[in-house]
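Hi V.,

You were right to ask for the full record rather than a summary. Here it is.
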Amino acid sequence: MQWLLTKIGIFYARLLSYFPLNLLFTLADIIYFIFNRIFAYRKTIIDLNLMNAFPHKKSEELWFIRSNYYRHLADLIIETIKSISISKNELKARLQLQHDSYALLKNYENRGQHIFVVLGHYGNWEWASLLAGITCKLPSYALYSPPSNKTFEHFLLINRARFGCQLVAANQLKTLYANLLKQTSLVAILADQTPVDTENAYWTKFMSINTPFYKGFDTLARRTDAIVLYASIRKINRVYYELSFETLTENAGQTAENEIVEKYVRLLENDIQQRPEYWLWSHRRWKRAGISY
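Predicted structure:
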């Protein structure tokens, strides 16, 4: 039954993806109204996350963030659907790589080193992984967390790789390392996933909460002496984003253990504090950090 329902959902999502985004705005508005006024999607999870992340904010401020988050989430759902059929030209128009960051990336491409791009569930990370296969001349990989639904996973693997970026499961770092030994590549990593193995995770204060982070990408970057960039995705208008890079290190092999993870956490935290509504508040980010949902 799950297989059939997934197939039906993918079929209708694919149909919707061919509608212009301007028309899909109407559907996003409806989704936002439902989330905000009728069925408060994961309200308890969102409110607990916000209260713990911003302990000094008043309830009215937190309500405002939640409402704006629902607005962004509704747009993000539509944008993710649109990614099924979006063209390269439209993608580059909707998610623009900041000029200086483009020059930085092109400079690094010619150094003969791997380039690791670390980002969070902030802005539109789905489009960022698609853009990697278009913008960079190096072979590109993106780490992902495999969903339990195998039919949906198969769809994701095909859709996300259609512009050339190959997906590698987060539990297959050894396979990725073997590929990196063969050729210089770009690797995109969503580094704010919740680690299962908390004993071997890197723990640090994140949004006022003691939080575990995966450190496998830090180890892999140091082992391959990669250049590591932090990707910041700024929403400049509805369904328009700007992507910029900040260099965490040009020689990861010379950094201390977990130094790259710590730098990443601080930059992501800064982005969230400036515009909190664009982070994924509806996931259980701190379920292994003592917060009971």
